[in-house]
Write a structure and sequence with these properties.
By secondary structure, the protein is α/β, with parallel strands linked by helices. It folds into 2 domains: about 150 residues, Rossmann fold (3-Layer(aba) Sandwich); about 55 residues.
């Protein structure tokens, strides 16, 4: 085992979690949110008419209006599961001296539902949007992650500085366009079943497989 500290950063939706492509779309469809309204909130964010935090709050409002509760959201994500080989991959990386991070613009309930108590053993930290509920389980709001779609790369830089790790000893694994800057920042970057040609163009490795264990051959 290599005792030198190294860091691996994983995207969540479609990378560590299988069964859906994008959690917000999954929830919108499950709760029957008006597609015109979902397109409008996305348009506002893409056009930079609202901040990422505002976009998260707008999404919460759509889900609230659709009657989403903690129990309902958990029911919606019951079909999700760890990507094949994910847990074995993480444990193998830990044995190699890596600390494992999740950096995602998804929601915390997905990690809770899919990985449960095991998450505390697998992940050094999880940077993600966190939904808030009252005592009855009613969705009341959300705290947006500081490492959103455009700032995943900052997470890598911040954690590298915090743990005294050279960027070249940081690995990023993702699957979509919002992972490009993070991929360009890490010393090693892996596109796992990428949905983005742009991501494939910039990463050091592209893995087309449904078994996350296949990324290990590219990580020392």
């Amino acid at each position: 085992m290599n005792n030198q500290t190294k860091l691996v950063f994983f995207d969540l939706d479609g990378t560590l979690v299988d069964g859906m492509e994008y959690i917000y779309q999954h929830l919108w469809e499950y709760f029957g949110v008006d597609k015109a309204k979902t397109r409008e909130v996305l348009r506002q964010y893409i056009a930079k008419e609202v901040s990422y935090s505002d976009w998260v709050q707008n999404d919460v409002k759509l889900l609230q209006d659709a009657g989403a509760t903690r129990r309902g959201i958990l029911d919606a994500i019951m079909t999700l599961h760890p990507m094949q080989g994910a847990i074995a991959t993480i444990r193998a990386l830990q044995e190699r001296g890596y600390k494992i991070f999740v950096v995602s613009d998804g929601i915390d309930l997905v990690v809770e539902a899919v990985y449960g108590d095991e998450a505390k053993k697998l992940f050094e930290a999880v940077f993600i949007n966190r939904f808030q509920f009252d005592e009855s389980g009613k969705l009341t709001g959300a705290t947006a992650t500081e490492y959103d779609m455009e700032h995943k790369a900052e997470c890598i830089k911040d954690m590298a500085q915090k743990y005294g790790v050279d960027i070249k000893n940081c690995v990023f694994v993702g699957n979509n366009e919002n992972d490009v800057q993070a991929a360009l920042t890490a010393g090693t970057s892996i596109a796992f079943n990428s949905k983005s040609e742009k991501l494939v163009e910039v990463v050091t490795h592209h893995v087309e497989s449904k078994d996350l264990f296949d990324i290990l051959k590219f990580i020392n």
